[in-house]
Amino acid sequence: MTLQSPTPMSAHRARRPHNDAPDTDADFRRLCAMDEGAEKDLLQQRIAEAWLPMAHRLALRFRNRGESLEDLQQVAALGLVKAVSRYDPDRGSAFESFAVPTVVGEIKRHFRDHLWDLHVPRRVQELRNRVRTSIRDLTLQPGTDSPTVAQVARHSGLTEEEVLDGLEALESYRTLSLDAQLTGAEDGYSLADTLGSAEPGFDQVVQREAVKPELQKLPERERRILYMRFFQGMTQSRIAEELGISQMHVSRLLSRTFEAIRQGVETSEERTCHTRVAA
User: How far apart are CA 25 and CA 22, in angstroms?
Assistant: First the structure.
């Protein structure tokens, strides 16, 4: 449904305290008596258009919260359309009393579902709102410029743990860009400049620890060959001369040793994985 600017409803319409609260009682009663169809849809649209200024007034309450006013007005209009389609004049309440919480609820739901950079559970969002309101009320009182967690808890009726959750959520509404310059830092020094990098030696430590048990299982000769080759930097021909064997034999022993170590490490990793799954 596309809402246009308000159109005149009835010449006998009486104004209520708000100048954006038209008299649509007769139109709603006629709407309830109509069957589904194009004529009913048209009347619903005319009623919604008449109440559109009220929806825009409610949207103004939520401006300057990170969302454009035009988008808020669209969300408020959606809530208004829902209120028009659900309102029953026979229940005795005025349409404005029914429509206001419907429109406001739609706007709050929009903020909750679409404007958080991080996913925060609804319970924590509600805690955030209660904590924020309590802090605002307390700061208006003399001598409580910076209310404590205990003061906020007493004022809001929450536990101190819930207040702490709400305080954390206050900082979760918007994420901080890594390119944001740090307060008080030198020009051009951003949050990204404070991030560390992975220590390349960590992987080497893990690999060494994985190989250690397999090295201990090797025969003395194979361990000696590995030591001479990789710790003393000796060539295969020099090792062969030292041990009194051929260079080809040294090469085969190294290849066989490497394969035994590799298979041992893989088997150990598979065993560890199966143990974790079983646990």
Answer: 9
Closest to 75 in 3D by CA, of 58, 92, 97, 89: 58
3-state class (DSSP) for residue 190: strand
pTM: 0.43
Exposed / middle / buried, residue 86 (Cβ in 10 Å: 0-12, 13-18, 19+) = exposed
Which two structure tokens, joined as six digits, stand for 104?
Answer: 């406001």
For residue 180, give the DSSP letter: P
Residue from 54, 4, 55, 46 nearest 28 by CA: 46
Give the list of residues 6+ apart from residue 159 with CB closer than 8 angstroms, or none: 153
Where helices occur in 115-246 by DSSP H, the ranges are: 122-139, 149-156, 160-170, 200-216, 220-230, 236-243
What lies within 8 Å, CB to CB, of 210 at 6+ separation is 265, 268, 269
Express each pLDDT in 44-55 by its tens digit.
999 999 999 999
In angstroms, the CA 47 to CA 95 distance is: 11
Would you tell me how many other CB atoms lie within 10 Å of the CB of residue 95?
22
Whether pLDDT at 43 is above 60: yes
Say if CB 49 and CB 90 are below 8 A apart.
no
> What are the pLDDT digits (tens) for 138-174?
888 776 678 889 988 998 999 999 988 888 877 666 6
Cβ neighbours of residue 14 closer than 8 Å, sequence gap 6 or more: 23
User: Can you tell me which residue has the tokens 């860009």?
Assistant: 177
The amino acid at 39: E
Instruction: Provide φ and ψ at 70, rounded to 5°.
Output: -60, -40
